[in-house]
Amino acid sequence: MDNIGGGGVLRHSNSSRLSRMSFSGEDGRAAQARPAPGAGGDRPMVTFARRTHSGRYVSYSRDDLDSELANSELAGGGGGFSPDREEFLSYHVHIPVTPDNQPMDPAISARVEEQYVSNSLFTGGFNSVTRAHLMDKVIDSEASHPQMAGSKGSSCAVNGCDGKVMSDERGQDILPCECDFKICAECFGDAVKNAGALCPGCKEPYKATEMEDLVGGGADGGARPTLSLPPPPGGAPASRMERRLSIVRSQKAMTRSQTGDWDHNRWLFETKGTYGYGNAIWPKENDADNGNGGSGGGLGGTDGQPAEFTSKPWRPLTRKLKIPAGILSPYRLLVLIRLAVLGLFLTWRIKHKNEDAMWLWGMSVVCELWFGFSWILDQLPKLCPVNRATDLAVLKDKFETPTPSNPNGRSDLPGLDIYVSTADPEKEPPLTTANTILSILAADYPVEKLSCYVSDDGGALLTFEAMAEAASFANMWVPFCRKHGIEPRNPESYFSLKRDPYKNKVRSDFVKDRRRIKREYDEFKVRINGLPDSIRRRSDAYHAREEIKAMKRQREAALDDAVETVKIAKATWMADGTHWPGTWIQPSAEHTRGDHAGIIQVMLKPPSDDPLYGGDGEEGRPLDFTDIDIRLPMLVYVSREKRPGYDHNKKAGAMNALVRSSAVMSNGPFILNLDCDHYVYNSQAFREGMCFMMDRGGDRIAYVQFPQRFEGIDPSDRYANHNTVFFDVNMRALDGLMGPVYVGTGCLFRRVALYGFDPPRSTEHGGCCSCCFPKKRKIKSTVSSGTSEETRALRMADFDDEEMNMSTFPKRFGNSNFLINSIPIAEFQGRPLADHPGVKNGRPPGALTVPRDLLDASTVAEAISVISCWYEDKTEWGQRVGWIYGSVTEDVVTGYRMHNRGWKSVYCVTKRDAFRGTAPINLTDRLHQVLRWATGSVEIFFSRNNALLASRRMKCLQRIAYLNVGIYPFTSIFLIVYCFLPALSLFSGQFIVKELDVTFLTYLLVITLTLCMLAVLEIKWSGINLEEWWRNEQFWLIGGTSAHLAAVLQGLLKVIAGIEISFTLTSKSGADDENDEYADLYIVKWTSLMIPPIVIMMVNLIAIAVGFSRTIYSEIPQWSKLLGGVFFSFWVLAHLYPFAKGLMGRRGRTPTIVFVWSGLLAITISLLWVAINPPSQNSQIGGSFQFP
């Protein structure tokens, strides 16, 4: 790798001989010549790069050059050349075919290059060279799986060659000659082309000279036929992107008219269809014997029956399960009743003033008006809850069963890219992240369609090596899960199950396999937990060696002169003895958390297209995996580039970097993002989510949100960590509108929805009745017949009246042609099957059974480019493309933008939890988590993402739900005032009403009863229990009086003073006390957020004591006012009970003297109040009293 002309150039070493050469130009520009994949040694495609005035390097493809030259020629009036054009005209590249530069068999070169890519660590970024560092080893232990980076292989036996021997998909050596002479792919190609196809070992001619014959030949027959697309017109070999686009262009959806609707007459004319079963349908005489066994052509089916009667009926993938009317109707009626009573009560409160305490009455009325408004915002979106169910059997029948369009039964499911984000290995333990990765790799989804990307935003070598160890352990864990149907497929959770692990296991070797895997996992945990010390010792050893070498060189140069102590930066070293390009343990220049190069390492290369079955006792797999597919999904480690002076936008920026890099490398049309502590609990969760995306109307669904379920929560759920009211009540209710909000993890996205495109069909809603009477949006222009298939469904709001012009995409998505060209492919592959007339914008069956392309170095180099820190400059990433920037709750804003463009979302509640994660059970951590959520809501309210500014494509009730998301933190202001009102009432001897009459008590009773009845009905249709509902009510007051108030203050500071908000990463680490699973629950960590609730508790307790003392010793005791104040004070204290319990720490550790002194203090304060304001002489109960 050399820096040629100051530009960023990727160059292969001579050993790979992939006909890739680099040329330098003038003025710091560089050009890169590379042939199209599969084109052999034909004329290469040239990519140019030039340096801008700001010092950034911009790459140009041939298409960009042609368009830029044309623009410059037009600007110059057609005469002469502009300076910009002269800048590019100095390049003219020819690579003649010479004896040393012979074209290689495309099949061999593609496989060799993919092996090279999977064993290389790619780095690069701003103003630096993109380098591919060949890794001899990734971890200290040996890699045994053939897909894993750094896997061992035999060396070539040809003298002077240090290449690796060709290997098959199992990692076994390919020996083309019967003498078993070991030879690499390059030497084999030279022997075939230049040495008369003679073996260098035995000098006998090779019997097979093609790569397919070597890999697929054998006793079982010839090579596997590859599924390839027809070559493009003109006979020229197709490039990678042309072959991808040919999938889109060659496949046509079902016949449609010019308006885009189903054209039944045209279908009848061009096919052998009929109008329906009501007509007389008779098979032709020879239909049953047409050479296809009676099951093909014409109308005839099996046994001479019409195909309409013998074909399977169309079945949907999902069903909407409505809430029973016996529950939903009373629920809606109670909402109306409570709304009416609330209105009458507030009217009565306004009219009946308390003349004796106007200040108390005024504050209470204002608070009650806000509470009523807040309740309406929260309750209205709950009027239409729904449940949904999926049918996995139908999914398998449609996408993985042999059909005429898919005779081999290959999976026709779309590709799925899974993102796992982590930032700090100290707060997010690598063992937790590794378990999440293992659960993803073992998921029940087609292996060749699954790709996992790990985003390490801290650039830590600890995370890198932990992921490599996870990939190595997956070699045994994943086949073990497939063999025995293990659930869950997170090894830590599986081996911690309390139930019988041998239940329902039918294989006789399960006990033996489980014991062996348990031993392997224990060793795996030891290696993971020992990585920090191992990396530190290794780095110290290499650093000492470097210091000794430096001192030796200095002494040799200085001779007899005095030698000063040599000081060199203490680097962090990788297992192969080279510097880690990311963050060092002891930070140094260009090796800190905010300043390091971009890194991509393919930990597990893409698997083969056909199943790869294991055997009995293979090397690296001591278990018997006969007839078990041992392939692993692709696993990629990604650490985006970070440089000082750039706003990296925290988690949202990391997710957008993954979107771009995955689009270049795998381009799955669907994306699932998970936090590092959320693992796959249900191995079929991906399939359940895909049922919604692939069903009729699924092309309008932007994302499928799964509920968040948590482990490690204390049995009483003291701080409402399960949050079941939100996930099982509010989210189910939103599913009946436009869909649930996006909550940050466990969400399956449609890639083109993240790209900012509009749905294929959108509906505009106007007025309050829009949810019941939607108005179809009218588009002035129709799709022309000349519109290409791949861009027909790509539309943005800016292009309502004209066709989408892909020439504007660089301004939105950046200057990566790989990324831009992948957009229409992802859109097409994400369409549902066009297997029913009602399926609009579908794709034909069998379109996704074509094997995906092999990885090459140019693809990974492009992925390095798109994760560079400068790539998003002057683009719409973070503005309307990808995850949206500008808020600490980027998840809610991103989901809101999709709903605002007309997309829908779906809530997928599976019978077995889809994902499970961890939540902070410590009071301080929980308050900080709620603070971050509430702060994001305040930011949303003061931004253009406020639901009041939503478009007409969003339903009225959905808009109210998003409005409540931005408003709910402001309730804390009124809530704190209302919590002090009982104490003020007891101190002053007044109450919020003049007297406790029957009207006030009746209103209060009806409002309370309707609230309880609504809670019971919500429990009925949501499935939660009463204790969970009560815990949610308690923490609503705890969070409202602490974190929500702080969030409002922080939000106002940011809006008014421009002070940025920083949040602390939620710790996923366990407690230090290994003997107590809930040790974190009892740890008291002081935070200023605790001050308001503590003050509220103390003031109310003192007020109760003062109120009792005053009433007992008063001349005319006013028990009604005392009871009113005490009742509301107890209401406040009952809600704050979990908070008080958290302050006391572990049960039994609070000394008894604390409670004694608390009681004495309360009595003393009450007596002091009576002494300060003594009652007059009276003959009532208690008589007169004087303080001594």
TrEMBL record:
TM regions (residue ranges):
961-984, 996-1016, 1036-1059, 1094-1113, 1119-1140, 1152-1172
Membrane topology field: Multi-pass membrane protein
Give the highest taxon in the source lineage.
Eukaryota
Spell out the protein name for this chain. Cellulose synthase-like protein D2
- Location (main, coarse): Golgi
Q: Name one GO molecular function term.
A: cellulose synthase (UDP-forming) activity
- Write one Pfam family the protein is assigned to: zf-RING_4
UniProt KW Aminoacyl-tRNA synthetase keyword:
no
Q: Where is the composition biased (Low complexity)?
A: 11-37
Write down the species. Answer: Aegilops tauschii subsp. strangulata (Goatgrass)
